[in-house]
């Protein structure tokens, strides 16, 4: 029995080592040095086959994402528990974690667009106060405000070639996080059609957008404790399994190789997922209500 346990432990360690190698890269520092010294491509200091292998490895590493940790964890649990079910569960978790990663990336991009809109309003107000005309002032202000995405080129083209700047700003405002550009388009129309001061309107718009961003940040900080608590509670079953194994029991064998254990595993997994989804839904609803 001890021999089997040692074999399982050694196999698990080997799986963890392989996962760390794939996800972290065994020679990441050396690969990055080669890329820097070669101006973006691996140094050809060996046979052509080695160079092709380095390029292929760089391409594979570029496609590896954090969601593959789910499959790696499933492989480790499959070795420890002697069952294929953890591998299936780990493979099923890959698309879920990929969706979560993309949602986090979209939220960060949305926040960057919001910051870019605020910076654009402040820079444009400064250029107008310096004596430049609105169309002339928009060019350096929009060029310095990175983060607006592909619509930034359309806004710059409209300002440079005498196009309809408010329509270009309204089109750019369709991007998530860039909704403040609608207010900028309204200020632009009022300033051009009625001769009102553009700088004063931009100052008020910048102050309003900044206050809205600060309110969202404050709400997110208040909900950080609840979110951390939900994640911690979601990880308690894993801690329980580790404690059971440390006390000499074999919880994985019971969960994966007995009918009652499989029933508890399925019921616990469903309840765990529903509880985590419900907690995150409540926090998301609070953020949307505040917005």
TrEMBL record:
Residues 122-242 form the Type II secretion system protein GspF domain. It comes from the Bacteria. It is found in: Cell membrane. Keywords: Cell membrane, Coiled coil, Membrane, Transmembrane, Transmembrane helix. It is a multi-pass membrane protein. GO terms for cellular component: plasma membrane. Its main location: membrane. The chain crosses the membrane at residues 68-97, 228-248, 254-280. Residues 202-229 form a coiled coil. This is Membrane protein.
């Amino acid at each position: 029995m001890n021999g089997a346990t040692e074999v399982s432990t050694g196999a698990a360690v080997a799986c963890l080592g392989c996962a760390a190698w794939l996800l972290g890269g065994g020679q990441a520092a050396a690969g990055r040095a080669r890329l820097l010294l070669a101006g973006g491509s691996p140094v050809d200091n060996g046979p052509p086959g080695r160079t092709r292998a380095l390029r292929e490895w760089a391409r594979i590493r570029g496609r590896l994402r954090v969601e593959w940790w789910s499959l790696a964890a499933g492989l480790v649990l499959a070795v420890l528990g002697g069952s294929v079910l953890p591998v299936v569960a780990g493979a099923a978790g890959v698309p879920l974690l990929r969706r979560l990663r993309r949602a986090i990336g979209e939220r960060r991009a949305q926040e960057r667009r919001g910051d870019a809109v605020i910076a654009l309003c402040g820079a444009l107000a400064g250029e107008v106060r310096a004596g430049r005309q609105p169309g002339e002032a928009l060019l350096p202000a929009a060029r310095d405000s990175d983060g607006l995405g592909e619509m930034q080129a359309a806004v710059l083209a409209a300002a440079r070639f005498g196009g309809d700047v408010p329509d270009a700003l309204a089109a750019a405002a369709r991007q998530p996080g860039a909704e403040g550009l609608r207010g900028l388009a309204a200020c632009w129309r009022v300033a051009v059609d009625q001769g009102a001061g553009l700088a004063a309107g931009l100052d008020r718009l910048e102050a309003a957008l900044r206050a809205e961003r600060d309110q969202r940040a404050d709400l997110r900080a208040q909900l950080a404790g609840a979110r951390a608590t939900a994640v911690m509670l979601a990880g308690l079953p894993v801690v329980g399994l580790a404690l059971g194994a440390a006390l000499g029991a074999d919880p994985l064998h019971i969960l994966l190789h007995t009918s009652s254990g499989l029933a508890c595993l399925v019921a616990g997994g469903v309840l765990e997922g529903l509880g985590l989804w419900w907690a995150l839904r409540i926090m998301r609803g609070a953020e949307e209500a505040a917005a």
